[in-house]
């Protein structure tokens, strides 16, 4: 009997423990649920702050603010783009459902300290860093950004650092003038240092010359000269890195761009290359800004590929077979044929540097709807013209559930947006290019930014060229692939504005472009602009499996190499479209620079792969 009582006692204790554990578990579950909800709320707030609190209008009409430019899209939709890179949109896309808007980003100044925006976080981080030279110096752009900015720093002590454009002793050696630049802006800062100030003796060194690295600390004052708004009355100058003027390859005089290419590691210190680099940076930023704010996802596509996107065959081979090879006879070959045995190579097949990320980014378009890639591409074309590079950057968006009209709308909006952005944010650099590189550059850019593009068919373009009476190197007849001379004549002489040409003959277009009902042309489009000619090329893609297979056969391209690409047509195929823009040509267009080798940091072309 006692054993039974003891058993019941232990059973009761166990039940009590179980009840206690269940209560604790329930409490923990409730706490976890509350924590998850709190984290989800904080995450939502943080996402809104990091994205700048983007608000999308869903109304069916949009008022265009003064100075903005409207882009018509379909029957009821507007895209509004302004010079600062903001805008608003309404309605829905024509047929495709692709909603293209560019919305103002408003900063949220009401966040608590526990919910800092990304910009607030960086400012707070910088303010609390241990004092050091880098974090406590001012860039010249911060001081010289505008007349309004310059006025706010007068009377303040600042520290600057950069490279000397000129150093001059004046007043019988009683004071020195230094023109300093740090690359952040076109303008330099004039620094005046009296002989009784720290560092004056170092400026007497022969190494204190053009190109020397210098830091200066002093008071910003209103400049008595007419060439600059402000200057620095220095209390201290430090010669950080001297420069021997007897061997320094950049003299004070103007150098030709061809000579500068031979010293590509130093040419960023010149006005033209520094300005081109800043404009290139602004255009790259504007590119990401446009696509990110319009719902596109950035996809990194491979540089090494086994596919020839354009079918041109002008590709760089990628192989590891030559490592350690001293004689051709040591290269592995296929028995009986003597052909190179690529099965022994790193990728077990012939591989190349890509000429385009388009085919790869289409795979993500077929799942994520709106995507783009922006990266380096390569072409082994033995061209020595000022329009071609062996290594260049391409911007390639792809849009699902879209046709040729949608494609043209996105491409035009993108181009006008980035030009607006450059006009707004590269004022000094564009003034430099307008004065010293291409007279009328700014007016040309404003024409592109503010004028709706003309849209014509390829057939109409050929007829326009024939009727013009102009003599061309290649006669404009139906079926030719129009050259730069034809494209520029259309934009500069006939229409005097950008032109979109559509429906090209299939004979010289890629296999993936959608075949039109006439079986002679494809749903392709090129955007032509003054001075450059073609700047954007694109098409509606062929979504019909049997048609694209026939096109591969016609062009004698191996289907097995494109089997994965054909799968996109086998499994859930949809109408889709995209375009490509050579980034260097865009920089040429915006800066007026004639040679493509001068708008990329280290140009690669036949016989040149230095640096």
Mean pLDDT score, rounded? Answer: 85
The stretches of 5 or more residues where confidence is low (pLDDT under 50) are 52-113
Number of helices: 15
Strand order of the largest sheet: 9-13-14-19-18-17-16-15
Task: Describe it.
Helix 6 (271-293) packs across helix 8 (404-425), helix 6 crosses helix 9 (427-436) and helix 11 packs across helix 12. The radius of gyration is 31 Å and the shape is globular. Helices cover 33% and strands 20% of the residues. Strands 9-13-14-19-18-17-16-15 form an eight-stranded mixed sheet, with helices on both faces. A five-stranded mixed barrel has the order 4-5-6-8-7. A hairpin with a 7-residue loop joins strand 2 and strand 3. Residues 52-113 have low confidence and may be disordered. It has 15 helices and 19 strands. The protein has 611 residues and is α+β, with helices and mostly antiparallel strands. The longest helix is centred in the first third of the chain and has 49 residues, at 2-50.
Can you describe this structure in just a few lines?
This protein is an alpha+beta fold and 611 residues long. It has helices spanning 2-50, 118-128, 140-144, 147-153, 257-261, 271-293, 358-368, 404-425, 427-436, 441-450, 458-468, 484-494, 545-554, 563-570, 583-591, and strands at residues 69-73, 77-81, 89-90, 157-170, 175-181, 189-194, 213-222, 230-241, 297-298, 304-305, 317-318, 351-353, 370-378, 391-400, 454-457, 499-505, 521-529, 533-540, 576-582.
């Amino acid at each position: 009997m006692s054993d039974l009582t003891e058993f019941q006692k232990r059973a009761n204790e166990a039940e009590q423990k179980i009840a206690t554990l269940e209560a604790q578990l329930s409490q923990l579950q409730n706490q976890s649920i509350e924590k998850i909800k709190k984290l989800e709320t904080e995450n939502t707030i943080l996402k809104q702050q990091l994205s700048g609190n983007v608000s999308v209008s869903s109304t069916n009409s949009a008022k265009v603010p003064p100075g903005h430019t409207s882009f018509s899209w379909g029957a009821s939709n507007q895209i509004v783009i302004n010079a600062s890179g903001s805008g608003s949109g309404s309605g829905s896309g024509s047929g495709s459902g692709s909603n293209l808007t560019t919305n103002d980003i408003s900063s949220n100044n009401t966040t608590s300290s526990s919910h800092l925006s990304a910009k607030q976080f960086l400012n707070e981080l910088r303010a609390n860093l241990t004092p050091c030279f880098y974090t406590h110096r001012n860039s010249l752009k911060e001081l010289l950004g505008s007349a309004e900015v310059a006025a706010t720093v007068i009377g303040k002590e600042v520290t600057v650092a950069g490279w000397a454009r000129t150093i001059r002793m004046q007043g019988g050696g009683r004071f020195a003038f230094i023109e300093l630049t740090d690359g952040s802006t076109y303008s330099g800062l004039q620094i005046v240092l009296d002989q009784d100030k720290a560092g004056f003796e170092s400026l007497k060194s022969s190494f204190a010359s053009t190109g020397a690295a210098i830091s200066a600390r002093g008071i910003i004052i209103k400049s008595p000269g007419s060439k600059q708004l402000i200057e620095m009355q220095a209390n201290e100058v430090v010669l950080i890195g001297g420069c021997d003027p007897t061997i320094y390859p950049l003299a004070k005089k103007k150098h030709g761009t061809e000579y500068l290419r031979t010293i590509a590691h130093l040419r960023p210190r010149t006005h033209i290359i520094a300005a081109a680099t800043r404009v290139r940076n602004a255009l790259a930023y504007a590119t990401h800004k446009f696509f990110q704010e319009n719902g596109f996802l950035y996809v990194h596509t491979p540089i090494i590929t086994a596919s020839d996107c354009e079918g041109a065959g002008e590709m760089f081979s990628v192989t590891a077979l030559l490592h350690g090879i001293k004689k051709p006879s040591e290269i592995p070959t296929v028995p009986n044929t003597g052909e190179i045995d690529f099965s022994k190579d790193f990728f077990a097949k012939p591989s190349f540097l890509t000429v385009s990320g388009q085919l790869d980014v289409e795979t993500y378009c077929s799942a994520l709807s709106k995507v783009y890639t922006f990266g380096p591409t390569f072409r082994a074309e033995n061209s020595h013209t000022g329009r071609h590079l062996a290594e260049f950057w391409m911007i390639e968006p792809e849009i699902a559930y879209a046709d040729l009209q949608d494609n043209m709308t996105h491409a035009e909006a993108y181009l006008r947006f980035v030009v607006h952005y450059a006009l707004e944010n590269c004022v000094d650099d564009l003034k430099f290019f307008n004065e010293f590189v291409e007279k009328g550059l700014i007016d040309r850019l404003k024409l592109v930014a503010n004028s709706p593009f003309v849209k014509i068919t390829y057939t109409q373009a050929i007829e326009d060229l024939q009727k013009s009476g102009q003599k061309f190197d290649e006669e404009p007849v139906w079926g030719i692939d129009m050259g730069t001379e034809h494209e520029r004549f259309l934009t500069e002489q006939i229409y005097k504005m950008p032109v979109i040409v559509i429906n090209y003959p299939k004979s010289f277009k890629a296999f993936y472009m959608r075949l039109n009902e006439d079986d002679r042309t494809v749903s392709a489009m090129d955007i032509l602009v003054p001075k450059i000619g073609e700047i954007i090329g694109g098409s509606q893609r062929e979504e019909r499996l049997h048609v694209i297979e026939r096109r591969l056969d016609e062009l004698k391209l191996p289907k097995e190499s494109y089997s994965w690409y054909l799968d996109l047509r086998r499994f859930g195929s949809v109408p889709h479209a995209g375009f490509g823009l050579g980034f260097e040509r865009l920089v040429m267009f915006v800066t007026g620079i004639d040679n493509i080798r001068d708008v990329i940091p280290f140009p690669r072309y036949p016989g040149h792969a230095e640096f």
